[in-house]
Amino acid sequence: MDKKLRVGVFGARRGRGIAQGITLTEKAYISAVCDYDESTYENIKPFCCEETKFFTDFDEFIDSGLDAVVLTNFFHQHAKYAVIALEKGIHVLSETMPAVTMAECVAICRASEKSGAIYMLAENYAYFAVTSKLTELYQEGTLGEALYCEGEYVHPMSHEEYVHYTPTTTHWRALMPSGFYLSHSFAPLMRVTNDIPVSVNARSIYTDGMRQEREGEPIKDVASIMLCTMSRGAVARITGWAKFGGHGNWYRFACAKGSAETVRGDEGKVRVCYNDWEIPEGKEKESVITVGFPFDKDKAKQCGHSGGDYFVSHEFLSCILEGRQPYFNAYRSCAMSAVAILGWRSSLHNGAEYKIPDFSKEEDRKLYENDNLSPFPDENGVANYPCTKYDLDKFDID
Asked: Taking CA 25 as the corner, what is the angle to CA 261 and CA 108, rounded to the nearest 5 degrees?
């Protein structure tokens, strides 16, 4: 065991999937698990070992001799624990968005720079077989430069399913504007094109017919349609967590010489089409490609999120062992968080444009180091920014 990386999991319920992926890589083992709810331990025990220690106290857990930690705690509470781990030289894999305030983005990037430890966002949709194939196709160069990209994450829920995943009216899902859950729609676009956002404009969708929330719960947006200008001039349209019908994911890359997109209704296929006058030698004008896992097929098939949990785990551990930065490092991950945070502000200001800072530059970070606006309540249960347009009269957002 000593020759393998020692990984701790903070959050036993959501941590099960990545714990499985980590174990299957055979590069590491789960040396510690922390969850305030001890009843969740059984959920993750199949991927633990005799040496695994269980904690309810985070401080004891993080000081238990870890090489790396997986943050699978509540969606809006990752940044604090990421900074603590990085300051201790512990590598961090954050399962959901890195931060929910601009100040948290700044803190993560500063801590990552000082630490030298790896920080990675565990965005599994960017490592699906189909999105990995799109990355390969785009980066071979035959499609030309990306001009317009689209990413959709559509996950409507019945009332019963929603209540199952959102057990109280103060749960983070109950208070989250849909644009905050944007990594499934946006991360694949960033990875495929190797590009980052520089500005965002957004509009949120509200209709009387979509009011499924419970009494005492804010009436939130159905989806947030966000337009991002990328660093090389392309425009990307993303949905955040869209709750309209019907369920599915879809990605499209419209390029100078052709296009590539996933096939609606069959997420295991990619459609590629070239301009008549720019068909590369050995290629067809139009083709539909059935994709597969790039490696470790049998292991990936055992893991959730279409194998994405395995490949995220594999990439994270490989980066640690090889001493290289992951694609979704602190800077790119926090840029995506900034799209969520500032996109929500844009929506509440009638689609106004907001610039996305370059978190690798200290002069940009200084502008946001004290920006703590958030729709999520603090430890005292108080939020300082609305989570729905219907609460605008309760806040001064100008």
From this structure: 70
pLDDT digits (tens, 9 = 90+) for 83-103: 999 999 999 999 989 999 999
Count CA atoms within 13 Å of residue 42 on its CB side: 1
Sign, Cα dihedral of 372, 376, 377, 378:
negative
Q: Round to whole Å and give the CA distance between 97 and 110.
A: 17
Closest of 270, 7, 268 to residue 122, by C-alpha? 7
pLDDT at 147 over 80: yes
- Tens of pLDDT, residue by residue over 17-44, are 999 999 999 999 999 999 999 999 999 9
Among candidate residues 29, 189, 167, 8, the one with its CA nearest the CA of residue 88: 8
How far apart CA 253 and CA 238 sit, in angstroms, is: 12
φ, ψ dihedrals at 228, nearest 5°: -110, 130
Listed by start position, the domains of the chain span: 5-124+326-331, 126-294+332-398
Q: What's the CA gap between 28 and 69, in Å, rounded?
A: 11
What are the residues whose beta carbons fall under 8 Å from the beta carbon of 159, sequence distance 6 or more?
212
Residues 308, 175, 161, 165, CA torsion sign: positive
pLDDT digits (tens, 9 = 90+) for 150-186: 999 999 988 889 889 999 989 999 999 999 999 999 9
Specify the CATH number of the domain 5-124+326-331.
3.40.50.720
Q: Angle CA(231)–CA(237)–CA(243) in degrees, nearest 5? A: 140
Q: Mean pLDDT, the chain, as a whole number?
A: 95
CATH, range 126-294+332-398:
3.30.360.10
Amino acid at site 182: L
User: pTM of this prediction?
Assistant: 0.96
Separation CA 99–CA 106 (nearest Å): 9
Q: How far is CA 40 from CA 12, 54, 55, 168, in A?
A: 6, 11, 12, 18
Two tokens at 131?
């999105």
User: Rounded CA gap, 80 and 344, in Å?
Assistant: 22
